[in-house]
Design a protein that fits this description.
By secondary structure, the chain is an all-alpha fold. It has seven helices and no strands. It has helices at 11-34, 48-72, 81-92, 97-116, 120-125, 127-137, 139-150.
Length: 153
């Protein structure tokens, strides 16, 4: 599980950390794609394109949760992680790699916008909740998948 950054970063620092993690993750996905590896299974048994689809789905989930929090002050509960991951893998199994990459790329800007909308007061007042949502769905999540993707390059 991804740890919440200690101490919580200021919004600009948090966004910078997310952007840095995204750049490294996305560059690695591109390397795997160039080597024809998106259809190959990683050591976890998922094809690399399923890892990309999985990250995109969690981006979308986090964007929705942050939007709900901003609109209502409540964050919807996290879905059952294993069931959610299995559904994403099943739903995207027949998708072309290009389609998966387009969804991955489309999932990032709305999430980044939601993160940029967070204020320092938001982050301080809701440190554990928001910090976890950000870390678990961005830089921490990317780090979880780097080694398995890197093994395909």
């Amino acid at each position: 599980m991804t740890d919440v950054p200690e101490p919580i970063l200021a919004p600009a620092e948090l966004v910078a950390r997310v952007e840095q993690g995204w750049a490294a993750f996305r560059a690695l996905v591109d390397r795997v794609a160039r080597n024809g590896g998106l259809e190959r299974n990683t050591e976890t048994g998922w094809p690399a394109k399923a890892v990309a689809a999985h990250v995109a789905a969690w981006h979308e989930q986090a964007t929705g949760r942050l939007g709900e929090w901003r609109a209502t002050g409540r964050i919807p509960p996290v879905p059952d992680v294993d069931a959610f991951n299995a559904q994403v893998a099943e739903r995207t199994a027949g998708d072309a790699p290009e389609s998966v990459l387009a969804r991955l790329d489309a999932s990032y800007p709305p999430l980044l916008s939601a993160l940029r909308a967070l204020s320092e007061a938001d982050l301080q007042a809701h440190r554990h909740l928001l910090g976890y949502i950000v870390a678990a769905n961005t830089f921490g999540h990317y780090e979880e998948h780097l080694a398995e993707l890197d093994a395909l390059t």
